[in-house]
């Protein structure tokens, strides 16, 4: 991760949670108080975001974080996966922000893992999309990788993807591809979204590098894969679910993309419990 970018987001999150100090903690806990607390999993899943969790307390200072697992690990309900030791005020003030990141990233990794399990035995890779929470993309795409998925382009500057509105504005698939080729470096691959066989034929004639089959039926996907015949990489997209992803993969596509992993996940329940004053240990 780019920690300069991550740190800015974390600092913003901490400021959101305590714009003028943590009045409850500061009125209750002496500055010199030190404690330990356990990081506990409250449901089965895949953990992701441990370094981000730790970074919260690094920025607050005077808190050491030890983990007993690593990102991408399967964890169980009741499992203690880490321990924090240090300044009690900073532990309590950073608790919610740190857990918010870890719970959400772990939820994404858990759902991603369920999708990738459906692709076992195939050569198809799972991709995420740009359907991410604003200012959370760096965290969410990392979580997808922790869950066994792959990242599509990170942002609009990463690569060319001609979608329906680009195609309409350009006057057609072929026109859009030709125009892009005139204006983009030859090292850039061009991906184009097609919805029917007419657009597919245009994409093949214009030698698109990657063809996205958008919202096609299984039967039409099979026909499209045969028609493309390895002349381009193939991505399937649109209404991908846990129930149909295996069937989509069997059509022979190279990639399947879904926004569900970053917009329809459930957070993984985690908590910090068993806080003890160090002097009493």
Helix and strand topology:
Blueprint: H1 3-17, H2 23-28, E1 34-41, E2 45-46, H3 50-60, E3 63-67, E4 74-75, E5 80-87, H4 88-117, E6 125-127, H5 137-146, E7 160-162, H6 164-170, H7 173-183, E8 190-194, H8 197-205, E9 210-214, H9 218-228, E10 233-237, H10 245-249, E11 255-257, H11 260-263, E12 270-277
Molecular structure report:
The protein is of the alpha/beta class and 281 residues long. The protein folds into 2 domains: 127 residues, Alpha-Beta Complex (Aldehyde Oxidoreductase, domain 3), CATH 3.90.1170; 148 residues, TIM Barrel (Alpha-Beta Barrel). It is built from 11 helices and 12 strands. The strands form 3 sheets. The chain has a 6-stranded parallel β-sheet with strand order 6-11-10-9-8-7. Helix 10 links the parallel strand 10 and strand 11. It is elongated and about 75 Å long.
Poorly predicted sequence stretches spanning 5 or more consecutive residues: none
How do the SSEs run, as a string of H and E?
Answer: HHEEHEEEHEHEHHEHEHEHEHE
CATH homology superfamily name of the largest domain: Aldolase class I
Strand order of the largest sheet: 6-11-10-9-8-7
Share in helix: 40-55%
Quote the beta fraction: 15-25%
Shape designation: elongated
CATH architecture of the largest domain: Alpha-Beta Barrel
Q: Tell how many strands the DSSP assignment holds.
A: 12
**Span between termini:** 36 Å
Number of helices: 11
Question: Which sheet architecture does the biggest sheet show?
Answer: 6 strands, parallel
**What is the CATH first-level class name of the largest domain?**
Alpha Beta
Per CATH, what is the topology of the largest domain? TIM Barrel
Overall average pLDDT: 96
């Amino acid at each position: 991760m780019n920690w300069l970018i991550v740190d800015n987001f974390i600092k913003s999150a901490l400021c959101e949670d305590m714009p003028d100090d943590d009045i409850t903690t500061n009125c209750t806990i002496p500055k010199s108080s030190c404690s330990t607390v356990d990081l506990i999993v409250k449901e089965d899943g895949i953990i992701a975001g441990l370094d981000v969790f730790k970074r919260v307390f690094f920025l607050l200072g005077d808190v050491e974080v030890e983990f007993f697992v690593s990102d991408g690990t399967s964890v169980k309900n009741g499992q203690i996966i880490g321990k924090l030791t240090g300044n009690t005020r900073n532990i309590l003030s950073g608790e919610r922000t740190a857990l918010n990141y870890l719970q959400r990233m772990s939820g994404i990794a858990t759902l991603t893992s369920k999708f990738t399990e459906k692709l076992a035995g195939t050569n198809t890779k799972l991709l995420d999309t740009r359907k991410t929470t604003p200012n959370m993309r760096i965290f969410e795409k990392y979580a997808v990788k922790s869950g066994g998925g792959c990242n599509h382009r990170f942002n609009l500057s990463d690569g060319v993807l001609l979608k329906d509105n680009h195609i309409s504005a350009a006057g057609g698939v072929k026109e859009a591809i030709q125009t892009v080729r005139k204006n983009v470096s030859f090292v850039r691959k061009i991906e184009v979204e097609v919805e029917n066989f007419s657009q597919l034929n245009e994409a093949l004639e214009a030698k698109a590098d990657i063809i996205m089959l958008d919202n096609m039926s299984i039967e039409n996907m099979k026909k499209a894969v045969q028609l493309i015949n390895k002349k381009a990489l193939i991505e399937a997209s649109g209404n991908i679910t846990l129930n149909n992803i295996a069937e989509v993969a069997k059509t022979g596509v190279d990639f399947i993309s879904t926004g569900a992993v970053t917009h329809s996940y459930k957070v993984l329940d985690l908590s910090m419990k068993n806080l003890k004053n160090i002097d009493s240990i």
